[in-house]
Amino acid sequence: MYQIGIDTGGTFTDFVLINEENGDLLTYKELSTPEDPSIAVMNGLKSAEKRYDILPSQINRIVYGTTVATNAVLERKGAKTGLLTTEGFRDVLEIRRQWRPRLFDLYYVKPEPLVPRYLRLEVGERINAQGEVLLAINLEQVRKHIKTMIAEGVEAIAVAFLFSFLNPSHEKVVEELIRKEFPEIYVSTSSSICPEFREYERTATTVLNAYLMPITAKYLKTLRGRLRAIGVMKPLRIMQSNGGLMRAEDIEEAPVNTLLSGPVGGVVGSIRIAEALSLRNIITIDMGGTSTDISLIQDGNVELMTEAEIAYNPVKVPQVNIHTIGAGGGSIVNLFGKGLKVGPQSAGANPGPVCYGRGGQEPTTTDAALQVGFIDPTYFLGGEMELDYESSRRILEREIAKPMNMSVEEASHAILLVQSAHIESGIRAVSLEKGYDPREFTLISFGGASALLVGMVAERLSISQVLIPKQASVFSALGLLMADIRRTRSLTRIMSAKNINLKEVEDIYAQLEDEIKQALINEGGSIENAVIQRSCDMRYIGQAYEINVPFPNDAGPIHSQTLQELCNLFHTHHRKRFGHSAEEEPVELVCFRVLGILMVKEMQFLPKKETSTPPLKGHRVLFFGKEKGFIDCPIYHREYMNKADQIAGPAIVEDPFTTIVVYPGHRAEVDSLGNLFLKVEK
Fold first, then answer.
1. Residue 116: partners with Cβ closer than 8 Å, 6 or more residues away
2. Among residues 60, 114, 425, which one has the least CA distance to residue 235?
3. Is the C-alpha dihedral spanning 82, 86, 88, 92 positive or negative?
4. CA proximity to 385, closest of 346, 416, 347, 358
């Protein structure tokens, strides 16, 4: 039997198959089908049967990283959505916060909210700041509003009433009404998606979830139906933004949890491989065809954010801290004044870079890498796809090289320099700008395009070591299979640590843990094997934002000593993040959180199989810029390199889906697992 991890990217959809009996890995790619991502998934399963004689009925576990929700937000192609809110609060979405992204831009225009004003309707109801009902809900008015929305073509309704995180009764009544009387309408309530304070963020997150529900539910239902039709009977699980898995059926109700579904797989895989190699501090770089995702992990701990933003929409759900930039192999290159502009627009999978021969007419990063000799046009995707070298060269010469009075090679190298500067800037954003020295970290480079530039990036940042995993080109898909099943619950209650009611806190955690345990049981897990972790968002009284602090003890009754330890941890975390703390200042607890984890069977990284085949494939002339010029370089086949083999740059190491550039002055060494370590010298 086999497990399969599937990661949908902007250009390629990656597949990893694990043989459960011996742990062997099989990896391959299919061109993504943005118009319907499930087509690429089904093509990949057909390829498994054709290439490896693996039948769909032999799939014992299937995990999927999807970009459906993300793309719907970025392209604003979600469902027509309505909002029911408390009387007087219909404009919360439009008012947003008082700050502006560009403070001195007199012409700045706020992005349009996902729900236009005429579909934001007010309901006569009111709950006060103590959770008490001041005004009972007017259900006849609710029915009238829903009928008005349906007449306008609304597919989904978000419900966000004032102080529903303290008392969700009014939202629950409306949800029951919609499900009973208007079953064709999708409904999302803030008390189930985001039972936390901050009216704007809570409302916006609930609206975003409703906006995504129809498109995500329809897609996942279609995909699950197609999987069953070919004989895949195991439940489909989806990667969440928090680094854990959830059943596809549950994701249909909470698609806002999947906005980082694909990139998170690579972070999970990086943590696992770092543990295996005793690397504590790492920075991950996942560069595919469309974007580059960067994340920093210190001491083996991934940073979870409780609030982020996508396409100007706040998202207040737990998610791995990933910084994404528009830099990929398909990044489109054009002239901007007298300089080069690379990305963030991408040629994607269709039409793709010019060299793909699929109708692309704009030069890209991949075309540039081809022209400097980094990519072999006859060995792309292991020879399955031959690149159009001449068309790529003609367009680069016409659009970039001639206008800049450069040779094609010089212009192409300049493109790669600009792209590497983008990635460098992204690494600085997660490290130096947050007080971390990148020189103290190991870069873990994966994704199909990352290894082309990572040596250059590491040199610019004086990072001495880069790890390129054995399965680098499909590493996010592999990471999906290493992820645990995770469920989170949260609840806002603002309490001063000085006058706190410990029983009330214990009751809150007991309620949240009961909900978590039931969710894990629904996943088919055993509570005896579950890990329950408590944490709390804390702040100094008067502060605007909080820090999430894990409990010193994950279980057991809460005592005054527990609370004191928690406050001490808060001071430590505050000092670490902001450079100072104020132990004499009063502290308050703001939001209580519980994370439930069902561990999956740990996957072992198998030792590299030794081979007697010589790894040297031949030589190719590469261009390394004006200073170093053209160099005749050896080309090595990665599969035939054995443990402790070393290569001095300049050189190229190829596998079917990744080209690794060992720059002049650098060297590469194979470890016992078949990973490649680049040692970078400035």
1. none
2. 60
3. negative
4. 358
Q: Long-range contacts: 545-553, Cβ < 8 Å, 24+?
A: 546/590, 546/591, 547/573, 547/574, 547/577, 548/304, 548/306, 548/593, 549/573
Distance CA 554, CA 8 (A): 35
Residue-wise pLDDT tens digits, 278-315? 999 999 999 988 888 999 998 887 778 888 888 788 89
SS3 track for 314-372? EECCCEECCEEECCCCCEEEEEECCEEEEEEEECCCCCCCHHHCCCCCCCEHHHHHHHC
Q: Is 354 left (phi over 0), alpha (psi -120 to 50) or beta?
A: alpha
Give the strand pairing for 442-446 and 282-287: parallel
- Taking only the tens place, the pLDDT of each residue in 494-531 is 999 988 889 999 999 999 999 999 988 888 777 787 88
The tokens for 326 are 């528009």
- Tell me which of 306 and 5 has the higher pLDDT: 5
* R_g of the chain computed on alpha carbons: 26
Sheet holding 81-86, edge to edge: 120-123, 81-86, 156-160, 186-189
How many Cβ atoms from other residues are within 10 Å of residue 580's Cβ? 8
Sequence-distant (6+) residues with CB within 8 A of 413 are: 368, 372, 623, 624, 625, 626
374 pLDDT tier (thresholds 50, 70, 90): very high
**Distance (Å, whole) CA 152 – CA 144:** 13
Is cis: bond before 111, omega within 30 of 0? no
What values do phi and psi take at 433, rounded to 5?
-70, -10
**Contact criterion met (CB below 8 Å) for 209 and 254:** yes
